Amino acid sequence: MKSETNASIMGNRKNKAVVETVAQIIFTICALFAILAVISITLYMILSGTPAIFQVGPMEILFGTVWAPTAAEPRFGILYVILTSIVGTFLAILLGVPIGILTAVFLAEVAPKKLAMAVKPAVELLAGIPSVVYGLLGIYLLGPVMYRLEKFVFADSTTHQFTGGANLMSAVIVLAIMILPTVINISETSIRAVQPGIKAASLALGASHIQTIFRSILPAARSGIMTAVVLGVGRAIGEAMAITLVSGSSVNPPLPFNSVRFLTTAIVSEMGYAEVGSTHRNMLFTIGLVLFVFIMLINVVLSRILKKGEVHR
Amino acid sequence: MRNPSITVKRKHPIDTFLMGAIYLSAFLSVFLLLGIIGYVFVKGIGTVSLSFLTTVTSALNQTVGILGNIVNTLYMIVITLLIATPLGVGAAIYLNEYAKPGRLVSMIEFTTETLSGIPSIIFGLFGMVFFWETLGLGYSILTGSLTLTLMVLPLITRNTQEALRTVPDSYRNGALGMGATKWYMIRTILLPSSMSGIVTGVILAIGRIVGESAALLFTAGSAYRLPRFTEDVAGNIGKCFGKIMEPGGTLTIELYLRMQKGEYDVAFGVGCVLIVIVLCINLLTKVAANRLKPVK
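^ Those are the sequences you sent over. The predicted structure of the assembly is below.
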């Protein structure tokens, strides 16, 4: 080690220059890797997602409502699958975000310091729990409850197909719980980052603590909270394993008690048996491409919000 | 006005309601979070035994065990980190030490951000088409690891970058001023001072690898057997390396398959093991962040 040290400082200039250049080139390549990865993912998603569009036709895919990939006359309409992903994500956000933000308010503004210190690690821990574990609990605990509710609601119905508790509602609840840690963590950080002067000014003007929180602090933390919501949307729309079994397994319109398929769960549940090279398999990649487009849109929105936040600061 | 005096606080009914909502939400969140962890732990701990952890499921020996999955998970962690750590740290060094602000840097930062936002199922599809079919690596631990590398890269890059930013400029100037070359300065000053960030990134990456399932289902498969060891030492070493090219299901995949078959006891057993691992990883992150802080 010692001699190497000397060599490096005292060694001849030419060698050093070579080492320097090589180091810089290697670091640059490492950095370019992220760009390379995103480009090749985009390229491959488009390459493997487009054949089915030509085979089936874009209108049939986007507006067809019948999904029967293995029938004698196969149909590949994914309208309900797309709608399920949108509706499911929207409902999960509607359910999870208010609870998440209010919890963040509790941790940052209301709770005694010691309690907040105890709750925070638990929230962080939750963010790390594998998604299959959420799925396991969803199907084991939520399923039976939902089934009972379903039997109660549709007691007199003769047309309803019973799902045994694996339906859109169960999936939405699982998704809402899964986005909680993301929303809580990011909202709390942004609430804590609000300048203390804003809070002090509001209180000094005679506003109550609650008025201060909802009229001054939350608006000031807006960009952070928006980030939290967008990240939550991304997590909910991209989640696959947790809701594969909980959401049921047939393609139906996204109604609360229907067994439904999301973009993600359609891929997971059929990729295993779709024949290589078949239109069916190509179609699953097209579903992947649709999901990818959604995610890219979300990413663009997110980077806009982040940039705006920087300007305001 | 009921309260003419300004010294008497006026009660806002809506305040009480909102305060109630805040408390209710907080209670619900904490209850859910602790409930989930507690339930899986209590439900699964009964299944976890020494033989559960040290055998492979076999109808012949009548054992139900997850040793094969544990070994696969370890393989996955080691190979992924071997590839992802140098890449991620290198990228962070470039961004922080070499690059000048401009198009390229914002491109790299945007793509890193994008990578961390892409859902794992998309990585799974990409890994399947690219590493499996195009590169011909087959259904294997290596294919899974390469796919995971893309997923954990942003974590390591970002944490290393954060750490590099906290190293004071005087360290750099001091080293350079004494005649050290840039690479020498990075190697002996910057990397040791930012070790805590790098280690935190690596531990977070381990957590991600352990918890991942969707990206692995179609890239690494679900095998749970161990290589059959013999007396031949060289052969055994060969088998250990050969395993990289064989399919292997991690703990999460095993949990998913068990759950699909309705074998909830085993599923909760695996879930319990996973939660203990996640707990340990969380603790480790905390320790790493505190212990390895650069001495100032």
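The first helix of chain B runs from residue 13 to 45. Chain B touches chain A through 89 residues (CB under 8 Å).

Shout if you want it in another format.
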